[in-house]
Amino acid sequence: MHCARFVLALGRRDLRRAEKSWPSDVWKRAVRALSTSSATSLQEAVRSKIEPMRAQVHEVRERFGEEVLDACTVNQAYGGMRSLKAMVYETSLLDPQEGIRFRGFSIPECQRLLPRAKPSGEQPLPEGLLWLLLTGEIPTESQVESVCQDLKRRAAVPPEVLRLLDELPHERMHPMTQFSVAVSLLQHESKMAEAYAQGAPKSTFWEYCLEDALTLIARLPAVAARIYRNTFHGGKHVPAEKIEKVDDMGMRLARSLGFELNEFDELMRLYLVLHADHEGGNVSAHAVRLVGSALSDPYLSFAAGLNGLAGPLHGLANQEVLRWLLQMKEKLGNRPMTTENLRELCWETLREGHVIPGFGHAVLRRTDPRYTAQREFALKHLPHDEMFQLVSKLYEVVPRVLEEQGKVKNPWPNVDQHSGILLRYYGLVESNFYTVLFGVSRALGTLSSLVWDRALGLPIERPKSVTTQWIREHFEKRSVSA
Ligand code: CMX
């Protein structure tokens, strides 16, 4: 039965290929993840997982609740708590060498296993990833179709919110600020806030949280497009009739922005999948978790996440990379793109006291597989693009420069190094807007995780802080008594 469903999900030809080329553990994990997929709606599927997961957490806490998961050094307390294991986050896990796994599945595995758009889509549908993130199951095509239809039904943004967005000072206000404002403006429809005000029991919060998460995710493409068209196209919007019939989120985003090419639809699907989640400790995910832990509803929590994503060391690197690449091209002028010329320009950036955007990572210690997935897309669709060639050449140059500089723990490129040149190739040249796309995608992971925070009844976050004086006295006292 399980294998039969797997055959259906993959198609017979893919299955034969997979059997030959996949390590058996991947095969087994995939079959396991399909094994309980009988629900016809996402809500039903999540509901069926709640009690077993609550029981699992209860058992783990009973057995290991007093074990030490990690110890925190003074340097970690000053150093952004780097690598400190002090959170539980179910939807994804980041391995320093392998990169991200969504519910146990790597990016190439997700590309192989998740359903694609019909008739000839090449990239996974973001709706399929949403199912995987929320339930841990690889959905069937009909399950993904049910999510597509559900999100489509919820996609229209209330006209009063659109009117308020139209009134913002677009020329002076960064698109990420507009985005954060937009999400806060949508908050007045929160089912979670309403249920809380009416005294709903804590055990049911997850249902309202899921309801809000789905509505918010569904509306983000239209919100992003409104910001884009207001800021860069004089408020000339794509007519609603052109969007209403579009079935999936990636294509809806592409078409609402004003792009009509199938290849760009595919890029948006890939983009939405790649940026969705990166375990729990990154700034945007942690901000969503933290604010949500005060039982702020998903709109308020996600707006907080967006404000964190807008920082240049996090999501804003998406825009900074393209600017840096364009500056580099300008500085090169007529000189060829040789290793020596690029090296010199990279050193110039470092000497000016700036980071090289799109390189390095707080957790990863190898090339980001999200970079690799985008590179594969570029190799297929834009191999001769000048900017792609620049990015490819920098892969040979920057890690060596950063290693020579001797500070970075990871000299390899991250996701942000690649995304800008793909968007630019298809005509989305306004780099200020790029982090908004990142934000649309990040909703899939962070809001899925938030639903689980409420389902598992996680309490308000409140780590203990200490002062420098406290640290000094604590350790001085300890060394005297030793
Ligand atoms: N260029 C120059 N210097 C860099 C660098 C880079 N790309 N990456 C790290 N460094 C420097 C750090 O600034 C730090 O210097 P100081 O000791 O003088 O403060 C030193 O190397 C050690 O840093 P690290 O431990 O290797 O990296 P962190 O965990 O502190 O920071 C990150 C991680 C991503 C913020 C950093 O690598 C960076 O600034 N990269 C460029 C910006 C970027 O691409 N951000 C996007 C990351 C992905 C995402 O979240 O979207």
Automatic annotation (TrEMBL):
One of its GO terms (cellular component) is mitochondrial matrix. Gene3D superfamilies: Citrate Synthase, domain 1 (1.10.580.10), Cytochrome P450-Terp, domain 2 (1.10.230.10). It comes from the Eukaryota. One of its GO terms (biological process) is citrate metabolic process. The active site is at H314, H361, D416. Keywords: Transferase. One of its GO terms (molecular function) is acyltransferase activity, acyl groups converted into alkyl on transfer. SUPFAM superfamilies: Citrate synthase. The keyword ATP-binding does not apply. It holds the Pfam family Citrate_synt. Belongs to the citrate synthase family. NCBIfam families: cit_synth_euk (TIGR01793), PRK09569.1 (NF007128). This is Citrate synthase.
